[in-house]
Amino acid sequence: MSVMEGRTTSALLYLDGVHVSFDGFHAINNLSLTLEPGEMRAIIGPNGAGKTTMMDIITGKTKPDEGTVLFDGMTDLTRLDETRIAELGIGRKFQKPTVFESQTIEDNLLLALNVDHSVKGTLFWRGSRDEAERIDRVLETIRLTDARYRLAGSLSHGQKQWLEIGMLLAQDPKLLLVDEPVAGMTDVETHQTAELLKEINKEKTVMVVEHDMTFVRELGVKVTCLHEGTVLAEGTIDQVSSNERVIEVYLGR
Amino acid sequence: MTPHFLTRSLDRSASIFILVVAGLGVLIPLSNLLLPAGSMFQVPTYLVALFGKYACYAILALSIDLIWGYCGILSLGHGAFFALGGYAMGMYLMRQIGSRGVYGNPVLPDFMVFLNYPSLPWYWYGFDMFWFAALMVLVVPGLLAFCFGWLAFRSRVTGVYLSIITQAMTYALLLAFFRNDFGFGGNNGLTDFKDILGFNVQADGTRAALFLLSCLALIITFLICRAVVTSKLGKVLIAIRDAESRTRFLGYRVESYKLFVFTLSACMAGVAGALYVPQVGIINPGEFAPGNSIEAVIWVAVGGRGTLVGAALGAVVVNYAKTVFTSGPLAPYWLFMLGALFILVTLLLPKGIIGTFNAWWEGRKARQVAANAESAAREDGIGEPRAAE
Ligand SMILES: Nc1ncnc2c1ncn2[C@@H]1O[C@H](COP(=O)(O)OP(=O)(O)OP(=O)(O)O)[C@@H](O)[C@H]1O
Ligand SMILES: [Mg+2]
Fold first, then answer.
1. Which ligand neighbours the alpha carbon of A53 most closely?
2. ipTM value of the model?
3. pTM (2 decimals)?
4. How far apart are CA B325 and CA B356, in angstroms?
5. d(CA A28, ligand 1 centre) in Å
């Protein structure tokens, strides 16, 4: 049973006591974290801290060995597969930008739209005005209107990052998991991305993983620092960056 | 299916393909039947049967391109679906022989009398009726593909592992059909057909009609494939081919999509086999040989994976080469040549014949557009200020 009796938490995302090990290597150790509806959270942590693995767990790619992962207080995500979790309204941008390279920008967004995803639905699909307008809006937001008929594979690294964020927008999920969105971007693009995420956060709950501290500071949201698969510190960026243990893991590497 | 559903999928190369196949489908039988034998333009009957075989191979190639070229499923066992369709048709043709067999048994085919079968096995029931056999041509390969795909795709077997188990599947069927007690004529298979729907299978008219039907089936298969790959479902298939897990995270049930195209593709291969058997006059377990399936994949690679037209063209080109070589002194070396061809195409023409042609054509068009824009700019004098900068 994936739906529990009644709500147990007000959080949109609730992780408690999660453990994952790969061949005896403990990638996630007793990880507990909650995200309130409408919140934006920045996740930082050194390489190998388990940030991406945490997203893998939330989106059903990796099954935890132990622990609770609840979405919307009711749904046990550990029992569902990737497709089901995406249908529930959790969207994800990957660390390495993953777009459909041999298809146009427009088609990438069309594929991402949260419309009927069944075999029958796509076989007999005929575009609607509403869908076309949604795609136009997303294209404008991610500033790729002029490139709409270009193949996604021809985009620069930074543009691919934006296209993938655009796909998230088209998907229109309740919770967005964004893994390293500004890697490979110029300062201006980084700033624009921060603005875009803040805009998105007006309607949606967002979790952002990022190493770029200027960017995290610009977001101005609560920060969680992970280390060796567990939460090391949580608070404002100033609190976290002045935390002794955090300084230790970042400098002691 | 609305007309829109079909017309959307017709671009220029598709229209040319259909016109050529339809033209050949009509002209070759006409020339065979109407012109006097020995005339320069008369296509002899043995060539009509040979071209009919090529048309069936082209259908098989299309079915492979649909799953491999567009969805990344490399089946090395598609010959099995082809052979099953062939056996379903062969069973109908066997039952049409009736009491004209060597042993004169009105119900049992010769091999059953020879092997002392007391009565017709249950799974031969109904094959005396054409409609039933025609249905089985689709249902048997389709059902096998559905069950096989359901198990494989749900357990997320992909890539090389999937290719290996499809080989194992066709090999297992090869062994089963070789057995005399399996009830399909053992290693001799089914042959000595007399007539189909009341027409003599050897007659020129029947051969011409079968050729025409094969061309028609090729066109219909092509139209279905085009409709599928140009629909939104086609975009999902390409997405699965290029980034399967990304597609799942967008909320697509990847295994359902794979199951759909795999089953559809197997039905097409079955139709190809069913049309093939009356034209070659025999179906035996050799058709299940793993090598056959691999050869069919090579046709697609040579013609151009993911282009449909290329797959059909590859089937014809490679088989024509095979016909030429295996009838000459080079016959023993055909397999080496096929292997060499595959390696050469992989190294020199990774997109295949049509894929390479398309890339060249697109490039030429793009250069033309750029050149036009440049000369237009020069005439408008837009080029000047730039030079002054
Ligand atoms: N499928 C896997 N099999 C084995 N080990 C894995 C697997 N996935 C992750 N790991 C290991 O788990 C640890 C955490 O990896 P993860 O990718 O979550 O780190 P991260 O915090 O995202 O790091 P980065 O900042 O470099 O992206 C790493 O040591 C990694 O090697
Ligand atoms: Mg990571």
1. 1
2. 0.93
3. 0.92
4. 25
5. 9
